[in-house]
Design a protein that fits this description.
Strand 4 and strand 5 form a beta hairpin. The protein has a 3-stranded mixed beta sheet with strand order 3-5-4, sandwiched between helices. A two-stranded antiparallel sheet has the order 1-2. The radius of gyration is 24 Å and the shape is globular. 65% of the residues lie in helices and 4% in strands. By secondary structure, it is mainly α.
Length: 573
């Protein structure tokens, strides 16, 4: 099979080709027809499913573009209103129909005739949706969608002045790589003082989100939002106890490595105390890595890098560039963070990020590029629902790409020593991300198990968990106020609750893929492409198996992977 990124927009056979969503009145007839259509044979059922899938793709793509446009410019009220209109006026009216369609599918006698291998995960998800659906939750979920976006608006407006010039917080963070320690400290403090200005507003927003989410859980018959969310996210293959085991494994087998990395940094810089504004710096005489200049330069270099890894991967990025589906540079008024947004109907996804010329922007680009390749590979699957893959495999796609692509990062650097520093930086990040993932995840478990906590209790618990996953090497004395609200910089807590442990699970998968890659590149890439092409048509363990991986969260397994990464890290460093 020859892979090509010459992706084609899905042909419409049910919804007219010129149909555009203007409001619920124009959309409802299609849902009504699907609900009322008689299904008298297996063939009629399959045709009905294809029509429903097409309608889902049209609606999904419309919603995605509203969100993309709004995050690209949070200052444009019209874009915000278009997004809010969808959340408040269309989405709530869709949900009862979605439930009726789910029930029609499950109740049809012809559903039993569907190929069990192909439809097992889809039907399992449909049954789960039926179990969770509650009419009372529709208005609350609409409110939650709008409220969660307020985080991007608040954060997107945050800027600081450095050397007489205004910078977004993402842009300002590049000064933390400068040799001038005084400048680094000044910028660090400015960034965190700016965050503190919105501390109370973000605390209020989070408290409101927690209460509404808790009500959703109660309405659906759950004790807390954590248990509801595990069910809603389709976490069929691991439990909260597995998450707790992961937290302990991080403390046992990852923190000692993080401590060594921090000690090495302190020694390298010749410091008595390693302060938080020192962790990204290099010793005097070593210039900060400057892998690219502009968003255009980053795009071209990423394409060259992917070309050497696998020509199909480069084709995907070229197609996105040609379609204008890349918005890479940080600017005022742009929402924070980075994402790859699949587009269900047109197929080629959209990459959004906040590049400021730093090394970690390269990592973000190849990371989102991995997600984009996943979107391209799963797009040919016949039903929209088949393309809804678990996040734990989605993040393997992106995190494995970070590690695969390292071998070809020479396109970003003229000097071999810079390339080695970049690889060292990447492996440090691969290791040091685990404690933060465990911290954020453990915090969320507590937050939603104790939904009626006060802001003071939340702060105390955050500090307690933060200490639990700290090495003690970085000296935060005098910076307690900054640390108390440091959870607020993690957009997932506001926008996609409980979506964070996936990064830890997937990082283990990515390390496993890289281990394969080091042994047999061709086979590893074949496994990678094979697994991602399956979309969500298999269970999570089966998707891992297709990638040649073990789905395992045990401390012993985590230790074996950490030993491998540490070995590679020592060879580079």
């Amino acid at each position: 099979m020859t892979l090509t990124a010459d992706i084609k927009k899905l042909e419409r056979h049910y919804v007219p080709a010129d149909f555009v969503i203007t409001g619920w009145n124009s959309l409802e007839p299609y849902f009504k027809e699907l609900v009322e259509r008689p299904l008298n044979s297996g063939a009629e059922l399959e045709k009905w499913m294809k029509d429903m899938s097409e309608l889902e793709a049209v609606v999904s793509e419309d919603a995605c573009w509203r969100q993309i446009r709004m995050t690209c410019d949070t200052t444009d009220k019209k874009l915000e209103e278009a997004f809010t209109f969808f959340c408040m006026e269309i989405q709530p009216k869709l949900q009862p129909y979605a439930d009726l369609l789910n029930r029609k599918l499950i109740d049809s006698p012809y559903t039993k005739e569907l190929d069990e291998q192909q439809y097992f995960t889809y039907l399992r998800n449909v049954r789960k949706s039926i179990e969770l659906f509650r009419e009372a939750n529709i208005p609350i979920q609409a409110e939650l969608s709008v409220m969660a976006q307020q985080y991007g608006q608040i954060s997107g407006a945050m800027t600081v002045e450095v050397k007489g010039q205004e910078y977004t917080l993402q842009q300002a963070s590049k000064f933390l790589e400068e040799h001038d320690r005084g400048l680094r400290e000044e910028v660090y403090r400015k960034i965190h003082e700016r965050r503190l200005q919105d501390k109370d507003g973000l605390n209020d927003l989070y408290s409101q989100l927690i209460q509404k989410r808790h009500q959703v859980a109660l309405n659906a018959g759950f004790e807390n939002y954590r248990d509801y969310k595990f069910a809603e996210m389709g976490r069929f293959d691991y439990t909260k106890e597995d998450c707790f085991s992961f937290h302990e494994a991080v403390k046992l087998h990852v923190l000692p490595l993080v401590k060594k990395i921090n000690e090495k940094k302190k020694q390298k810089l010749g410091l008595d105390a390693l302060r938080p504004w020192d962790t990204e710096a290099e010793p005097e005489g070593i210039e900060p890595l400057k892998p690219f200049t502009t968003g255009e330069d980053l795009t071209e270099k990423a394409i060259k890098c992917f070309e050497e890894l696998n020509p199909f991967f480069a084709e995907c990025l070229r197609k996105m560039k040609e379609l204008g589906h890349l918005d890479l540079e940080s600017r005022k008024g742009k929402a924070p963070g980075g994402y790859n947004c699949p587009l269900a109907e047109s197929g080629a996804p959209f990459i959004f990020m906040n590049a400021a010329g730093q090394m970690h922007d390269v990592t973000t680009m190849v990371h989102e590029g991995g997600h984009a390749i996943h979107s391209f590979l799963s797009h040919p699957l016949p039903l929209s629902a088949f393309k809804e893959y678990p996040m734990e495999i989605a993040e393997v796609a992106s995190m494995a790409m970070e590690l695969f692509s390292m071998e070809f990062w020479k396109v970003f650097f003229d000097r071999e020593e810079d390339l080695m520093r970049a690889k060292e930086h990447q492996l440090e990040r691969t290791i040091t991300i685990f404690p933060w993932i465990a911290t954020v995840d453990k915090f969320q478990h507590w937050v939603y198990e104790n939904p009626n906590h006060t802001v003071v209790e939340r702060t105390e618990k955050w500090m307690e968990i933060l200490e639990e996953f700290s090495t003690g090497v970085v000296d935060f004395s005098g910076l307690e106020e900054f640390r108390k609200s440091s959870w607020q910089r993690q957009l997932h807590l506001f926008e996609v609750p409980f979506y964070y442990i996936e990064y830890g699970i997937a990082q283990l998968g990515a390390i496993g893929m890289w281990k394969q890659f080091k042994g047999n590149k061709e086979q590893a890439l074949k496994n990678y492409i094979n697994a991602l092409s399956l979309g969500g048509t298999k269970t999570l363990p089966a998707l891992y198996q297709a990638a040649g991986l073990e789905f395992n969260l045990s401390p012993d397994y985590i230790k074996s992977l950490m030993d491998f990464v540490n070995e590679e890290y020592l060879q580079i460093g």
